[in-house]
Structures are given as C-alpha cells and as structure tokens.
Amino acid sequence: MPCNMRIVNLVQNSQMMAVRLSNRILSFIALLFCMAFLPSFTTFSPLLSFPSVALYPGMNLYISSASNYYTPEFSQKTDSVIIPLKRVGRLFLIEAKVDGEAGNLVFDTGANGLVLNSTYFREHVKSGGVVSSGITGSVGIVEQITVGQLEFAELRYSNLTADVANLGHIENRRGVKIIGLIGFSLLRSLEVVIDARRSVLKLYKIDKAGRRVNSGSKSFVPEFSQKIEGNGNILFVKGAVGGKLLNFCIDTGAETNAISADLNKKVMSTIVITRRASLKGAGAAGSEVLFGRMSDFVIGSRKISEMETVITNLDGLSEAYGTHIDGLLGSGFLESGVLCVNFLSGQFGMRFTKGEKQ
Amino acid sequence: MKTTVIFVIMLFVLHTLPAFPQKFNPDNVCRIDDGKLIFTLNLKWTAKEKKELSDLFDLDSILIDQVYKGKTTITLDGETWQVRKLQGNMAELSKAIHTGAAKRINLNDLLLMVDKWSNFAGSENESAAIFGVNNFTVANAFVYSNPIARFYLPGFKSASKIYISGTFNKWSTTQTPMKFVGTGWMIDLNLLPGKYTYKFIVDGRWITDPSNKLREDGGSGSDNSVVFCYNHEFKLKGFKTADKVVVTGNFLNWKPKGIALAKTADGWTASVYLRDGTYAYKFIVDGSWITDPGNPVVKNDTYGNSNSFLGIGEAYTFKLDGYTNAQKVVLAGSFNNWSPTELVMDKSSKGWQLQYVIAPGNYEYKFIVDGRWMIDPANPFSVGAGDTQNSFIALKANHIFELAEYPDAKQVILSGSFNGWSTKDYRMVKQGGKWIFPIYLPQGKYTYKFIVDGKWILDPVNKLYEQNEYGTYNTVLWIENSK
Q1: Distance from the A329 Cα atom to the nearest Cα atom in chain B, whole angstroms
Q2: How far, rounded to the nearest angstrom, does the alpha carbon of residue A143 sit from its chain's CA centroid?
Q3: How far apart are alpha carbons B147 and B140 in whole angstroms?
Q4: Do B201 and A200 meet the contact criterion of CB atoms below 8 Å apart?
Q5: Is cis: bond before B147, omega within 30 of 0?
Q6: Contact, B62 vs A308, CB < 8 A?
Q7: What are the chain B neighbours of A199 within 8 Å (beta carbons)?
C-alpha cells in the first residue's frame, strides 16, 4: 500500500513566498485544481494549503522563488569534502543524521531544501512547535519544523527549517530507510561537483564571488558551461533536442529523464517511442505513459544519444516552478559526465564522459 | 537508358524509405506527431508479432483485432482510434495523446514500470544465494573463521581514511572505518555464514576490492565485490594418487565441472558456503562419480542413482502424535513443492516424526495420513480456510507480531506487505492473553495493520507509521539483520 500523495502547501512568511510541493504523485487533476486557486494567493492569509498534486515521477519538488540558503560549518579544518553517494536504484543517497535520527537523505536537486520523512519526524513536529500545518483532509499533511542539527560527511548545519512529508513510497520502492530529501538550498554556499559515474559528491568552500577557498585542488575545468538563470535553488539548463533549444531542469532526484509530450514536430521526430502503458484506474479515460529514447539530445557541444526518457505532460511542473520547462534531466543524464554547480558565481559547468563532440 | 536510371532511382528510393517496417521492430512502430500518438503497422504481421506489439505498447488485443479486420474508427475504453490505410500492407493507427489525463496514477507502479522498461533489475536478495566460493588473488585479503571475517586491503599507505561498506552494514559510508596496519588496511567484522557484497571507500571514493575477482553488477553500472563466509567443508580422505577431485550436487545443478578440491596431507578438501537446507552431492575422482565414503547418509534418486546427502543448518522435527494404526504418514509442504511421496515420516512410540533441515522462512504444510490430507493438530497457526487451510510455521522466526489489546476479539488478522495485504491468511493466535503471530522476514521494510473483528487498526505499540494511498495509515516495521 504505497502512498502516492503529493501535497501542495502555499506559504507566505516575511521573506518569501514559496510554493512547496512535496511527496510526489501524478494527479494532474489535483494540480489543475490547485492552479485554479492560484490567483487567490495574491491576497492570502499567512498560511494556505491545498490538496495535492500531480507531477511527474521521480521528482520531489520543493520550489521557492527566494534565494534563502544555509551555510554549513565544517567540523574539521578543511575546505572541501568528498562524500561517497550511496546508489539505491537510480537514487543518490547521502548518509546523514538529523537531530539524532540517522538514515539516508536523497540528494534531490529538484527539491529546494530539506524535506523530512514524516514517519520519523512526526514527533519532532509536536515537540518542536509547529510553524505551519496544512491539513488537507484525507490527502496529506505538510508541516514545517525547525531542525536543531543536520550532519553529514564533515558538515554541520544548525537551526534549519524543514518540511515534513510522507516519503514512505520511496522507501517502499527501494527498500532503504529514507529520512529525507536534500536540495540545493543547503549546498548553494558551496561549489558542488557531482560525479554520478563514480558515485561521489564533492563540496568546496567558496568566497562571496564563488571562488574556491584554499582548496589546494585545481579548479573545475568545464568543457561546457552556462550561466545559472534565476535566483532560486533549482538548476535550469538549456539543451537542444532535434535542433531546438529547450529548457531543462537538472533533477538528481528524478529516477528517469522526462520530456514534454507537446513539443513541436521536429523535436518529437527525434524521439523513438519504445514502450507505452495505459494506466488504468477508477477514472474514465486511461492516462498513458510513454517511454523511449532521445536520439538527438545536445548540451553544449556534446551530443548524448540514446538517453532514455519518459514522455509526458510537464505543464504542472512548469507551473510549479514558475518557469516553462520542456524536460527533466535525471539520473540517466547525470551518468554522462561530471557536473559543477556554483550558485555564487552563477556558473554551471560540465565535463563529459559520454557522447560525441559536435 | 533514361528509364532504366529512373527505375533504379525509384528502386533505391523505395528501398530506403525508412518509415515502413516490414517485420515488427519496436524502435520503428510508434511516434508522436501533432499531439497524436501514431503506430505504423504492417497488416501482414503474424500473431506473434501482433502479440509483441500489444505487450510492448499496452494495446488491447480487441483493438488490434479490429484494426486487422479493417475498421477505420475504433472506440475502446473511452478513447477513439483512427485507422488510415497506407501503401502496400501498411496502416496507421492513431489517437490523441493522453499523458495528462486528469486522474491519479500510482507513482510507485509507474516507476516500477520504468524500471522494467529500462531493464533495471534492482537489488538482488542475498539471502536467496544458495551456494558460493570465493576467488581472492591475495591469500590474506579475506580470512573467515566463524564468526570473525577479516578483510585486508594491502597498500593505500597515503590514504587518510578508509571505510568498508556493504550489505553487512547496509552500505553505510560512515559506520565501519578500517584500521591502518603498516602494510595496508584491516577490519574484523562479526559475520554469520552467507553471501555479502561490499566495497571500500578510500578518502571518499568507492573502489571494489582489488584482491577479489568475484564481482557482480551493483545495479548502477558499477560492480560490487562479492564474498562468501563459509559454513561447510567437503572432505574426501585418501585418493592420494588421484589427479583431480571435484564435488558437485543439486546446489550446482549437477554440473560435472563442480568445485575443485585441494590436496591435503590425508586427502582432499574444499570449503564452501551453502544456504541452510538439505543437499544431494557426489565427488568426481578423475572422472568417476562416487558417493562420499565419509558420509553414511546415502539416498537413491528417482533414476536409481545413489547420492550422498547433507543438511546445513538446524533440523526441525515435524511431529504427529497418535495415528499409530496408520500405515504411512507423509509430510508435504511449500518447502518441497507439496510432494505427496518424498518425505515419509518415521514411526515413533507416540506417533510419527521426521527431522528435516530447511532454510529460515515461512512455510505451509500438511500431513498425509494413509492418503488423507490433514493439518497439524498440534500447531495453532494455520493459513487459508476449508480445503486450502494449511498449517503455518515460521522457521527461525525473527519477529513476533503482538497485540496485547482486544483480548475479547473473536478474530485478529495480520495483514501487510509481506503477505500481499491478505485479509484472511495470517490469523493471529491468542496466547498468554495477547494475540501473536511469529514470522520470518528478510531484512528490509514492511508495512502492516491488524484487522480486529473486521476493523483495520494500526499497531498501538509501534510508533512508526506512514500514510497510504487510501488516506489512512500503515504501521512501518524495519527488520534489521536477518542472517
């Protein structure tokens, strides 16, 4: 009995207006429902929440228009850490401890910040004082808590705000204990190097301009780089499919790449569809999921062919992110090289281990 | 001349037209165009090819039948398909794309489907490994003396931290540091016999064990090292002049290559891991098959061949008191595919009994008394009902579900992810004022609930619970180490 709830919680506080989507599901109807209510938020009370929504698989979406972020302390005199990532299925896990509770955090750049699993943090909500509570009937609850301490590798964060949501479905699918999700808001004061092929995450201290601090190691030399757009904690990059430039979100929590089904003829003609499933349920018409390969995906000067992808409707995702998205680049894409993300210098760079030079 | 050239060009053009698959090829069947999902079909496809089309693209066989009968508009499950005849035997089947249908899709099912589509196997259940031998290139890289397993990684003198991470510590990246011992890095772990996969983490970077040739795909494109902690030694005394001795058995599907034994002072030996259970085996000495002269347990198989038998693990004694006038009592269960002839029980002073070695697990069984099937009258645990009611036993049970409340309830059922959420199978038994159900569960996560006289409840003493798809909650249970 896995849960497939996704919760939308709209929150306003003094600094930010955030749309948080935790705990993903695919209920587009709920999303439409939510969208229908969006205008009313311009005048809202401090807290409003809405039933859950549907987005696409493998994303644990947590979106914020704010650029708030946390800076960790390094427990040792070091300017960089190398974190071995655990691979479970196509997820990347970081071993962590949150207020004494040990377990795995999913490294999920599709999420904004810290989302904790309600199975283990429900009690913390009660004892720690509830900042917000969004009871949505039988659909689900998203609550915010203050975390005293989050530790992983040699990093320590104090007094963080985290969302609490049901992440049981990830555990049930992958058979490991998941205490939460961690997105870029906890890493954006650092330079982040993601080497998925070697299952390693490297974090470097940087100065305000985004330069590495005395790390002694050579700077990352990208084969391709782009300016990071926007001031949020979500990483958007441009890639071309069938020669058309598209907007992708790099989502390390996405267990599959995804591309929008309603892209133009030229784009769609380069996508080979190899599987389809009609997902039947209580509703009338079946909703279908298409799966295939992108034969002509180009990022920078690199063509990465044969990347597997789900083909679906991403309108909901675009709405939630507040920017138009044509696709998601998940674990399948990450395997094609080493990524370097530096929010302070505003640069995203990549070195490739797969693909052909154009 | 000119017409010939045109003819040749036409032939060439026809030949290179890519869109018309002759044989079924999943890469060349389906496309999206203008918001439509379009299949290009060959009307001469065989039944087998049509079945493949139907399976890969989840197309109803009724739909395909109608296309092949020449219908041009087909409405099925609320969707309308159009069929357009193309040149030759080809046809195009299309409909509006429906990826954004307004309804809830089970994310879990979807991702599992994507796993299947992309041939993603997921993690293997290690407790299922029946047999194994190690393959280390450095003699002291791994030494096992139950229960201490010593791992030694030579070199890496300039590393500052090395961890070992594997199935024995749930792949923890932080819990098990190795010690530098001058020539390399070492760690002693307490491990029970079994199969384990592992890696080393050298200053944050994962490596497989360079001294271990036994590896398997870790499921994410990289290999893990594999090691077996042994629990059995095959020994053959004498045969000193033999050149080659191997052992084989049902654990190796009787492959004659077998596992080679090494020469010792007084004979031959080979250490192995064998999962708990009963096994048939033979030695092959320079090509001749022999039973084990050191093992008195020899049984004939159905072809009249005699084989040596050995039991690994603890034997469980099945007992049936009474029925002393019966001619024959046979034990049959899920552990031997319900064979009605194999496990004949021995007559004892009180009734009937049989010692049998089975791997830890949950089993259903019955006795067959002179041809009549019956449940075990001495075992209060049973599953199913009526003719399909069987006695239930959890061997080496590692968890007991308990419910101390509801002492007056008529019936309490245990339902969870471990039994497909069956609402009738696992009947709890009232013992000592509380409801109990002992069970064997491999390491991992389980969700469950109790059904008390028809009412679903959470386990009142377990604090871990999560929301389910019905908007209610399931209790969560983690089984830590089942080996």
Answers
A1: 15
A2: 19
A3: 17
A4: no
A5: yes
A6: no
A7: 206, 220, 222
Rounded CA-CA distance A93/A78 in Å is: 23
Q: Tell me the two tokens of residue B273.
A: 């891991």
HSE-CB for B380 with a 13 A CA cutoff: 9
Nearest neighbour of B111 by CB, restricted to A57, A168, A268: A57
Per-residue pLDDT of chain B (483 residues; tens, 9 = 90+): 556 666 666 555 555 454 455 688 888 899 988 888 999 999 999 999 999 999 999 899 999 999 998 899 999 877 899 999 998 889 999 998 866 543 345 555 667 777 777 765 555 566 678 899 999 999 899 999 999 999 999 999 999 999 999 999 989 999 999 999 999 999 999 999 999 999 999 999 999 999 999 999 876 667 899 999 999 999 999 999 999 999 999 999 999 999 999 999 999 999 999 998 889 999 999 999 999 999 998 887 767 789 999 999 888 999 999 999 999 999 999 988 898 888 899 999 899 999 988 888 999 999 999 999 999 999 999 998 888 899 999 998 999 999 999 999 999 999 999 999 999 899 999 998 899 999 999 889 999 999 999 999 999 999 999 988 788 999 999 998 755
Q: Are β-strands A86-88 and A327-329 bridged in parallel, bridged antiparallel, or unpaired?
A: unpaired
C-beta separation of B280 from B292 below 8 A: no
Question: A19, exposed or middle or buried, with CB in 10 Å at 0-12, 13-18, 19+?
Answer: buried
Instruction: Report residue B399 as tokens.
Output: 């968890």
Q: Model pTM greater than 0.90?
A: no
**Helical segments of A244-325, H only:** 265-268, 315-321
Fold of A60-217: Cathepsin D, subunit A; domain 1 (2.40.70)
Closest alpha carbon within chain B to A200: B205
Give me the residue spans of the domains in chain A. Answer: 24-56+231-352, 60-217
- Nearest-angstrom CA–CA distance, B408 and B404: 11
Contacts of A274 in chain B (CB under 8 A): 26-27, 30, 56, 117
Q: Do A311 and B79 touch (CB under 8 A)?
A: no
Q: Which residues of B184-212 are buried (b: 16+ CB within 10 A; e: fewer)?
A: bbbbebebebbbbbbbbbbebbbebbebb
Quick one: which of B34, B73, B182, B317 has its CA closest to A266? B34
Domains A24-56+231-352 and A60-217 share a fold: yes
Cβ contact (<8 Å) for A288 and B99?
Answer: yes
For residues B379 and B389, give the distance between their C-alpha atoms in angstroms, rounded to a whole number.
Answer: 12
Superfamily the domain A24-56+231-352 falls into: Acid Proteases (2.40.70.10)
